[in-house]
Amino acid sequence: MIEDNAQGFGAEYKGKKTGSLGGIACLSLFPTKNLGAYGEGGMAVTNDPALAERMRRERTHGWKGKYFSKKEGVSTEVYYPLPPHLAEPCQKPGFKRGDFPDAERASQETLALPLYP
Ligand SMILES: Cc1ncc(COP(=O)(O)O)c(C=O)c1O
Q1: What's the confidence (pLDDT) of residue 59?
Q2: Pocket residues: Cβ below 6 A from ligand 1
Q3: Are residues 68 and 102 in the same domain?
Q4: Are 55 and 66 contained in the same domain?
Q5: pTM of the prediction?
């Protein structure tokens, strides 16, 4: 169960804190909420370590460490140091180094510079 605890933070139901009744609780941190942030914000919380790990990965579209996706079906860009076919999700179909030499070369040679705004 995913609990919407945006208006219930700090409340109790049958002796249990709201936000701890299901597997995951979501909170809007919009300033009008019980727990407001300065501006827009939100969070999802859990006591379940496996769900927490999955939520961390979902937050970054499947990336566990920087540049290393653990989730299948997530598109990536070749300017990352690890081309998509060498990421863990692509090991199951059997891709290996050398299968896409252009992508491997591009991942070693392409530089991505952050721009703002
Ligand atoms: C109970 C509840 N859940 C979710 C939301 C959505 O919050 P947000 O607009 O920050 O996504 C609201 C906002 O009014 C709310 O009252």
Answers
A1: 80
A2: 4, 6-7, 28, 30, 42
A3: yes
A4: no
A5: 0.60
